[in-house]
Amino acid sequence: MFRFSLSTFACACAVLAVLFTLPARAPAAPYMVSVMQDDDELVYKSSKDRRKALDRMKGLGVEAVRVTVLWRSVAPAADSRHKPHGFNGAKPGQYLQSRWDRYDEIVHLAAERGIAVNFNPTGPGPAWAHRRTRVKQAARSWRPSPKEYAKFVRAVGRRYSGHYHDENHGKGVLPRVSWWGIWNEPNQPGWLTPQATAPQLYRDLLVAGAKALLRTGHSDDLVVIGELAPIGSADKPEGARASLRPALFLREMFCLNRRFHSFTGAQARSHHCDQLDRLGILARFPRLGFGHHPYTRKSPPTGRKPKRDMINITNIGLLTHTLDRIAATTGLLPPQMPVFFDEFGYQTKPPDPYRGVSLSLQAQYINEGDYIAWKNPRVFSTAQFLLYDSGPKTEFPRGSAPYWSTFQTGLYTGLPAGKEKPAARAYKFPLVVRRKGGTAHIWGQVRFAPNGATYPVLLQSRARGSDTWVRSGAPVQVTQSQGYFQAKRPTQRGAMWRAVWSEPDFARFETSREAAAR
Fold first, then answer.
1. Sequence-separated (6 or more) residues with CB below 8 Å from residue 98
2. Contact 38, 386 (CB under 8 A)
3. CB of 253 within 8 A of CB of 326?
4. Averaged pLDDT of the chain
5. Which pLDDT score is estimated for 16?
6. DSSP labels for 244-255?
7. pLDDT (tens digit, 9 = 90+) per residue, 189-202?
8. Is the pTM of this model over 0.90?
9. Exposed (0-12), middle (13-18) or buried (19+): which is 48, by Cβ within 10 Å?
10. Rounded to whole angstroms, how far apart are CA atoms 296 and 372?
11. Which residues pair with 501 in a beta bridge?
């Protein structure tokens, strides 16, 4: 029986403690965790870069970082088909300490800055932990061993249990991690293949990861499952690059057809539905959430709904509906399961000359995404994927499409330039304006300000064709703990709006992005 009791528990910062003192239902999200992910900066660069990135994230108002703990990058002999003799993957001390050091530093530095850490231990794993296949494109993600994955998660869970002594750097106790994800995007072939059986494979990996977290003392932590990508190529994926749409993936994982009736006969046997009850282990986590990555590619968050069984931010109600039907039919998920957005963003053109949206639309769209998430009482986090644009693939000809086949979803251009995009201000100080007749309905968040503070925000408008900003009405007193505010002001079509925040002594000013009253 699920007990989604939203009680307080300790973590590196107060974010999760506050989150779980709140009711699951409300007219809008009562608390939204601002999550950012940038593995390039936090995991794969230098200690100096790591510190700079976390400082910049903190200044933007980031409350939690999502970090991929890539099995393959931590495990020994990753390219070998033979597991090292005597290696026990459940023991942190049997891995090279240098491969843990970057994660150790992340949890220390994040704790110093009051930023929570969400670790996502995921495949692909070392070659010796995967079945062999003749499909070269799928070799790295083909049928990982749940047994070996469980050992890896046990090692990560034990190391970041709050009781483990670092083997170097003074041998102090490493900070506890209290937010976990189990695997990443199992409905995408880069992470798990073959996709035709990925729902069953993920079910086994999920049970293995859950058991590992329980064995290492994380039963009261926030555990997020799913972590699904929003799109898929077909109902029945064929070929190494095919992927499953998220709603279909979920139904098949729980042995349900489109009408949420249980599989029977040969269909049930082919999906190993006799093992479905093993997912009952999830009930041992009273703080269980569902992770989703609601990207739209280039479409606005307010745009048209995607194809059948795809789920992005425009139709997030399909996700909660699917979860609720699964919970009611199987009893294997909690009712009213909380949803966490832990990846989201928009590719920009420039710098990518082939795909993406303009810099101004990126700023607008991430704010509209924030607003949609905030309005949904089931969604408890917003996400930004990348602080800085990823670097191009320099092994390809400069300027070619493969050269730019990385992610340019950052708030800043790639380093070393690191030039601020309009989205940086939009993320730091979101603003959305909706015009209804002669009234502007204004929503925003002073994301960068300290949580729990009370302060005024000035609203200013600028008429179409004018360069002059004019104060509109009395200041809005921000009392919500995370800086959310709403207001109504008279407006004209096409007027521009912005919000202004200042310190009490006016030593520092911040302005939001400019939003049009359309």
1. none
2. yes
3. no
4. 93
5. 64
6. B-HHHHHHHHTT
7. 999 999 999 999 99
8. yes
9. exposed
10. 13
11. 510
